[in-house]
Specification:
The structure is a single chain. By secondary structure, this protein is mainly β. The protein has one helix spanning about 265-275; strands spanning about 15-25, 30-35, 50-60, 70-75, 80-90, 95-105, 105-110, 115-120, 125-130, 140-145, 150-155, 160-165, 175-180, 185-190, 195-200, 205-210, 220-225, 230-240, 240-250, 255-260, 280-285, 290-295, 300-305, 310-315, 325-329. The longest helix has 8 residues, at about 265-275. The radius of gyration is 30 Å and the shape is elongated.
Length: about 325
């Protein structure tokens, strides 16, 4: 306990990291302090004047969410709010200084009614992160200039997508990668030995779904809708693809290639982004050939653009039947 003048002393501590808990009848305050290897270490604690508090609720039912983890840290103090400071001390009559550290990150859990509270030492910009099983993680920026009103943080239930990936013949591929892309956010996973995959805590919205497996054609699904709290089960069948060879002459001509399917997907960009190592380039004296190993069956429009001209060719891809398109400039 502190004495009547606010001083405290703890004896017998070794150097290392400690959690210091300061509390009175009304509030509880936590500091993480690195104790240096010195004979005596003085650390003055300024009791906070600011507070971040609020309630975490279910965004749909408006019911409180108990035992949700809430973290708050200062955005101005770098990664995880770690700040360093100099401690001046004296050992055996010799004055020197040492750099110590304290963490401005605090953590707590909501109570049975979803409430939480933090005491904050200084004004500035903070981030509040809320995590609870079955819900989407939420991060809220908070600017402390003076005491702010309590926050109401509504969490959205995450969705689950699970299923399998197989070939048209029912075989499990040796490997397969699945990408879920929504705006600028993407989530990825791979199948296990049984061809199974799972995505947990997906945000609601419309996704593009990409599946890639060796020796099989990529599968692309647009407008794959995910609703809050739903559990989806999908079994995907990948078709046998076919290689496409694009020849361009003269050989050293810089060009831009587009391979558009009926839905407008540019498979040249898709291969560059996800399967670049599978593109083969054959450089000859008179022409350069680009080989794409597994395009899905269907019609395509091939566009090749140089500085002088743009040329197009339509081609139909059939399973297991290689196709070739030649462009001469």
């Amino acid at each position: 306990y502190t004495d009547s003048t606010g001083f405290y002393k703890v004896r017998g501590l070794k150097d290392g990291r400690y959690t210091v808990v300061i509390e009175n009848a009304e509030k509880r305050f936590i500091k993480v302090v690195d104790i240096p290897r010195v004979k005596e270490f003085r650390y003055d604690i300024l009791y906070p004047e600011h507070e971040i508090s609020g309630r975490v609720i279910d965004g749909e039912t408006r019911m409180p969410i108990p035992f949700a983890r809430v973290d708050v840290w200062s955005e101005e103090l770098g990664d995880k709010g770690i700040v360093t400071f100099d401690i001046h001390h004296e050992v055996d009559g010799v004055a020197s200084s040492i750099t110590a550290a304290t963490s401005e990150m605090q953590s707590t859990t909501t109570d049975s009614e979803g409430f939480f509270s933090f005491l904050i030492e200084r004004e500035g910009k903070y981030s509040v992160t809320v995590v609870s099983p079955g819900y989407i993680r939420k991060v809220i920026p908070v600017a402390i200039v003076q005491n702010i009103p309590p926050l109401e943080i509504a969490l959205v239930k995450g969705a689950t997508l699970r299923g399998t990936v197989r070939s048209e013949k029912g075989a499990i591929p040796p490997a397969a990668d699945i990408q879920m892309i929504k705006e600028n956010h993407s989530s990825g996973t791979s199948i296990d030995a049984g061809g199974r995959f799972v995505f947990d805590d997906l945000e609601p919205g419309n996704y593009s779904l990409y599946i890639f497996a060796p020796a099989l054609a990529p599968l692309i699904l647009d407008d794959f809708k995910i609703e809050p709290g739903r559990h989806y089960v999908e079994d995907f069948m990948l078709k046998e693809g076919a290689p496409l060879k694009i020849g361009i002459s003269p050989a050293d001509l810089p060009v831009r290639i587009r391979i558009l399917d009926a839905a407008g997907h540019d498979f040249y960009s898709i291969f560059l982004m996800y399967l670049e190592e599978e593109i083969s380039i054959e450089e000859g004296k008179e022409k350069t050939a680009y080989l794409f190993p597994n395009l899905p069956p269907g019609p395509y429009r091939i566009t090749v653009t140089s500085k002088k001209a743009t040329k197009e060719e339509d081609v139909e891809i059939f399973s297991g039947s290689p196709a070739t398109v030649e462009f001469e400039f």
